[in-house]
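Figure caption, in words: inputs first, then the predicted bound structure.
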Amino acid sequence: MLHIFEDKAHLSKAAAELFVQTAREAVQKNGRFTVALTGGSSPVQLYSLLAQQPYLEQIPWQQTFVFWGDERWVPLTDDRSNAKMAKETFLNKVPVPQEQIYPMWKDNMEPEAFAQQYEQQLQKHFGQQAPEFDLILLGMGDDGHTASLFPGTEVLHEESHLVQAYYLEPQSMYRITLTAPLINQAKAICFLTFGSNKASALFEVLEGERNPEKYPSQLIKPQHGKVHWFVDENAASLLAKKQ
Ligand SMILES: O=C(O)[C@H](O)[C@@H](O)[C@H](O)[C@H](O)COP(=O)(O)O
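Bound structure (6-phosphogluconic acid present):
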């Protein structure tokens, strides 16, 4: 479902409302809310809103469990860390129990072994139930990547694992990512996409020919859940169908 907003401020406010509503419904139904966060610059405004009223008091923080959609394999003190950014913008300011926050990093561990451990943590969290996140937030790069699902990478074909680590040659670093089959089990997914630099990729992903190898965001098609594209007018400028 496509939602076009005037600008980043309106988009972020609507995303905060979606976060609140999804969290409250999940807790009402299942007693807890499980979310995967995105990194990058797109969610910064949303995250700071979540730590402010009225959202702060509307979110059931005690029942919230926080995972990440992807991460750069860097320590939690590194400025490139998605976990560091989320902690600074909201997690350190809200009453979510520390032990319910699962950053994608552990000192003195290899990324591949860590990815396996993260997968086990997810399996433990979901127990007998299918690993369905209540909400996964995603960004999209101007090359059409999402999470750490980059064009032309092996991980795009992963079918058996929930989490993968791999070396991303062009960036000379390891990345950890939830895989597309896991993301697609989510009950709700929300892409945060704004700026004219995203317009061309957004057009290709939503209205272009199917080519997920080149535009990995096309892989994101939830089996049972909903996908919300929260975009601003600049990002939507090349779309023919505006709703
Ligand atoms: O950076 C990350 O952690 C994510 O891997 C990545 O998928 C991100 O969401 C997009 O690159 C969009 O980034 P921006 O929000 O900075 O445009």
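Residues 38-42, 70, 82, 139-141, 145-148 surround 6-phosphogluconic acid (CB under 6 Å).
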